Amino acid sequence: MANSPGQPEDFEFPGEFIPSPTSQDCSKKAGGWGVPMTDYEYIWYANAGEDDYPKDACKPYYHKAAQIDNFKVNVLLDGAASLNLTGTGTFGGEVAAPTFRGNFVGNLTGTASGNKGFDIPHVKDGGKRIRHICVEGPESGIYVRGSLKDANEIVLPEYWDGLVDPETITVTLTQIGYSQDLIVDKIEWGKIVRIRSGNGANINCFYEVWAARHINPMNHDEKLHVVYEGNSPKDYPGNNEYYLLGGWDYDRRETKWRRPEDEIDSVNLDKGA
Length: 273
Hints:
The protein is mainly β. The chain has one helix at residues 266-270; strands at 76-85, 99-106, 117-121, 129-133, 141-149, 153-155, 164-175, 182-188, 192-197, 204-213. Among the domains are: 76-133, no CATH class; 141-213, no CATH class; 218-273, no CATH class. It has 1 helix and 10 strands, in the order E-E-E-E-E-E-E-E-E-E-H. 4% of the residues are buried.
């Protein structure tokens, strides 16, 4: 009999199947062994029913839970209860025409119908969980927050320069300990926020600064179309390459906006080079 794909050349079939005596140890052995398969194959399905299985053989195990290195779904991902995605990797890849059924739980990148959220175990109480819903709005919002004491300037992150629209910067101040009549005096060059006290008190406050990122930092005229005519994301009147959308590409290896002087080999980037 010819060896199956993935089996070593010196593999020999053991011969006819001989059921194990009931006195033998039929307990499950942890882990796995053999030759790792790198291509996507279907999970093997037995054609012998429970009534036809030898009565004196070890009871077979089925995979109620499984661990695999790569997982591919062609059409339908069906969850009766919830889908928990945990870890530090990326839930992604190019999704051609997916259908998801069930409650999505985990870190969601892109878009989804309804509320986008995540669900994690409670840090200190093992019998509880925490569920949050992602903030959403009609802009690509970005923020920094912190505290200010005996100082009057908030230095915004260096990487904000060119990334955000400085005209959209807003500042929220919360005084600590006593009334200070806090005032945003001015915002210099979109880089420094100047604060002053209307009653001359020493400044001691929390701050939160929000701004809207440019949809395309190389073309500030690109705007987000919040409501548009259409039946699918393909009908979006702007450039869809700037967004991660359900059913689209979750695993881009390069930005779709590039400086004209940058020379990037997109072919090699797509290959992970």
